[in-house]
Amino acid sequence: MHDLSAGPGLLVLAALLCIAGGLLTFVTAGVIALCTAISYARSVRRVRTLHRQITHGDHCTTLEGP
Fold first, then answer.
1. Which of 16, 23, 59, 62 has the fewest other C-beta atoms within 10 Å?
2. Tell me: the pLDDT tens digits for 22-57?
3. Distance between CA atoms of 57 and 54, rounded to whole angstroms?
4. Nearest Cα residue to 36 out of 46, 44, 24
5. What single DSSP character describes residue 54?
6. CA–CA distance, 25 with 37 (Å, rounded to integer)
7. Residues 6 or more apart from 3 whose CB is under 8 A from it?
8. CA distance linking residue 26 with residue 31, whole number of Å
């Protein structure tokens, strides 16, 4: 009888661990995707700013020299 009562408890525990592991995987993937998106957006903004500076002649004195 004791084994029968412990069985469902272990099954529930295993199911909860699987669910927690799945959620942790999704959260980790989401954090990685968010960090990647932020890094990509920053690099795109940096390239656009640099391109605008070169195109419109802002701060071009440092690039051209005397």
1. 62
2. 999 999 999 999 999 999 999 988 888 888 878 876
3. 5
4. 44
5. H
6. 18
7. none
8. 9
